[in-house]
Automatic annotation (TrEMBL):
Forms passive diffusion pores that allow small molecular weight hydrophilic materials across the outer membrane. This is Porin. InterPro entries: Porin_alphabac. It is a multi-pass membrane protein. Belongs to the alphaproteobacteria porin family. Its main location: membrane. It comes from Mesorhizobium huakuii. Keywords: Cell outer membrane, Ion transport, Membrane, Porin, Signal, Transmembrane, Transmembrane beta strand, Transport. The keyword Iron-sulfur does not apply.
Length: 392
């Protein structure tokens, strides 16, 4: 082999090696975007991990605007006054609300650790005349802390609504579901929930109540000693619906109150419910020291209806994925009759418009027994409401 051939062969080998190395060159990957929020789907949609922790957080709420008219056209008691003489004005009732909610969840060696909060910010027509206050006794539209509880396993402590209402369920999908009221709501609680996993569940709740007698409608709801109000309930749930019962003991007025409810899923589009309330009166008709010469009118935190018994019934029919019809009829021993019906329509996901018509017949139209607690100014009242709500 001569020198020329050796040089040519070496050059060809170098070119081949260089080509192979060029073909095998390392390709630098594009940087992946940083994952600032890690999704947590253990507790449902919307949760994410708080960075650096094992706690899952969800933030939500709604913005609501109500326009009411007629005699009973405002759920939260918004009323207007004539600017010259201060008299009740026959005009629109307006109410705006922003509700901020938070949920957290975390698994621990003692079970799931959960929290829930809801704070509501309200703006409404000013009203200075009792009894036009909302269900929480808040006439001025001030912010309210409606929920703030901690739950570990089955043990829950904090600010909640009474298990007398939450465990058995509210009174239908109408806006004005308390034309005949079915229970007091805001309270501090110590509760224990038991779920057997076969459709059977139960609750025991020690409660403080709310209101010191100044609201009149529920009597003096807050305990005035170290003895709490006690609520217990059992529920059996299956695909066809549910059967639920709750019993409450009021430590102030020493009466017992209960409710029994049946929910039936007639079809995937049609559901019905019926709920009955019954109670002893204990000391509810005794003169209240807090109220002076005005008694509680036979009403209490766990018996806000008139007389010893009351009944509520209604249902929901879904026309399609966007529209539904909701109705409720309520009646008590004092012959108070309430009828509410609405159509709710989802314009787009998360934005619902509801149009409702309401009727109230006040059986005992007497201010001394607070029969007409809704603020209606006559024996037969008709009103309506248009609600816009953006939930997120």
């Amino acid at each position: 082999m001569n020198i020329k051939s050796l040089l040519l062969g070496s050059a060809a080998a170098l070119i081949a090696v260089s080509g192979a190395r060029a073909a095998d060159a390392v390709v630098v990957a594009e940087p992946e975007p940083a994952e600032y929020v890690k999704i947590c789907d253990v507790y449902g949609a919307g949760y994410f991990y708080i960075p650096g922790t094992e706690t899952c957080l969800r933030i939500g709420g709604y913005i609501r605007y109500d326009i009411g008219g007629g005699d009973i056209g405002s759920f939260d008691g918004a009323r207007a006054h004539d600017v010259l003489n201060g008299k009740d004005q026959g005009t629109w009732y307006k109410h705006a609300r922003f509700s901020l909610k938070t949920w957290t969840g975390q698994e621990t060696e003692l079970g799931t650790l959960k929290t829930y909060t809801e704070t509501r910010f309200n703006f409404q027509n000013h009203n200075g005349d009792a009894p036009y206050v909302n269900a929480a006794g808040n006439p001025s539209g001030q912010p309210s802390l409606n929920f703030a509880w901690i739950q570990l396993g089955g043990l829950r402590v904090g600010k909640d609504e009474s298990a007398f209402d939450t465990f058995i369920g509210y009174a239908g999908n109408v806006i004005q579901d308390t034309l005949v009221p079915y229970g007091g709501f805001d309270t501090n609680v110590i509760q224990y929930y038991f779920d057997a996993g076969n459709g059977f569940s139960a609750v025991v709740s020690l409660e403080e109540g709310s209101g010191g007698g100044t609201d009149g409608f529920y009597g003096a709801g807050t305990i005035d000693s170290y003895v709490p109000h006690v609520v217990g309930g059992v529920k059996y749930t299956q695909g066809w619906g549910a059967i639920t019962g709750v019993v409450a003991y009021d430590s102030n007025y020493e009466y017992v109150s209960g409710k029994v409810r049946a929910d039936v899923n007639v079809s995937s589009a049609f559901s019905l419910f019926v709920m009955g309330g019954f109670a002893s009166e204990g000391k509810l008709n005794d003169t209240s020291v807090v109220l002076g010469t005005v008694d509680a009118g036979g009403r209490g935190f766990y018996k806000p209806w008139g007389g010893k018994w009351a009944v509520w019934g209604g249902g929901t029919y879904k026309f399609n994925e966007k529209a539904s019809f909701n109705a409720q009829v309520s009646y008590d021993q004092w012959k108070n009759l309430g009828v509410a019906a609405n159509v709710a329509y989802d314009l787009v996901p998360g934005f619902t418009v509801t149009a409702e018509v309401d009727y109230l017949h006040a059986g005992k139209f007497d201010d001394t027994d607070f029969s007409n607690w809704t603020g209606a100014t006559k024996k037969n009242s008709v009103g309506g409401m248009l609600r816009f709500q953006r939930s997120f």
